[in-house]
Write a structure and sequence with these properties.
The protein is built from 6 helices and 10 strands, in the order αββββββββαααααββ. By secondary structure, the protein is of the alpha+beta class. The protein binds a DNA duplex through α5.
Length: 248
DNA sequence: CCGGTTGTTCAGCG
DNA sequence: GCGCTGAACAACCG
């Protein structure tokens, strides 16, 4: 469920519930979810992997983590974390993380860091990148303060597309290449969205979970890279690792 | 049936 | 107080 484009799809699917009043609230969340009872949903928003349900005086943040899921107007066999029942229809959220946000959403979230947002700002991303010269690019791409919405699949596909080795240090990557990376983080995310809508996302993976490099026909390296230790699939032949010469 | 994971936070340690 | 590690969460696929 998790990556940014999937949240955009969810936001579209729940549009019929916008402006609707919640008649009953259920779920095994430990939070006071009953405070939503009787409230009218003013809007649905998103930021990166966060799905936001906006009410008059507060908002609910749903994060699907690794295993979270949802059903609209149908149910799974398991107990939902949160179920919102309307006069017509219901929303069910499973195994997700829920938080209440009391502050104004627009003040809490910086949309310039959301790769799916109209307000996404590549220049701002560039400025943030420069603050982490020692970090590896595979970790930085997963940093939600810089690339909100990017997850492990997008990471692997973007790095393969621009031929960049996941273990490159930021400081060693040429400026032009960094710009390319920032552009492709958003660009691939929209391809992800398009392909997910058409149910052909997996079919279009070039690197993620793949065994052979489609460009070189040699085996991919599969390794848990960086501080984040997330799976990386990469080709040592066509994905460049820039050497660090200036510190020797 | 077990191993692994489209993710994040937090406790515990040195 | 820091940086690192591992646990916790908990569902589904191959």
């Amino acid at each position: 469920m998790p990556e940014g484009p999937s949240i955009i799809i969810l936001k579209e699917l729940v549009q019929p519930f916008k402006g609707k009043k919640i008649l009953k609230v259920e779920g095994n969340s430990k939070l006071d979810i009953q405070r939503m009872n009787g409230e009218k949903i003013l809007d649905f928003k998103s930021w990166g992997k966060h799905f936001l349900i906006c009410f008059k005086n507060f908002a609910v943040r749903i994060h699907f983590m690794l295993f979270g899921s949802y059903r609209i107007n149908e149910q799974k066999d398991t107990v939902p974390r949160l179920r919102l029942i309307f006069k017509k229809g219901e929303l069910n959220f499973y195994a997700c993380s829920i938080k209440f946000i009391e502050e104004n959403i627009d003040e809490v979230y910086d949309r310039t860091s959301d790769v799916m947002s109209e307000e996404w700002d590549p220049k701002s991303a560039k400025r943030k990148l420069k603050k982490y010269p020692e970090e590896l690019i595979c970790d930085i791409l997963l940093n939600q303060n810089i690339f909100a919405g990017v997850g492990n699949i997008i990471k692997n596909e973007v790095l393969f597309r621009i031929r960049l080795h996941p273990e490159n240090k930021i400081e060693n990557i040429p400026r032009v290449k960094l710009n390319e990376l920032i552009m492709e983080a958003r660009n691939y995310s929209f391809d992800f969205l398009k392909w997910k809508r058409e149910f052909v996302l997996k079919k279009n993976w070039l690197a993620h979970t793949k065994k052979i490099c489609p460009r070189c026909n040699i085996p991919f390296i599969r390794k848990h890279c960086g501080k984040t230790k997330r799976r990386a699939f990469f080709c040592v032949s066509c994905q460049v690792l820039y050497n660090n010469n200036h510190n020797i």
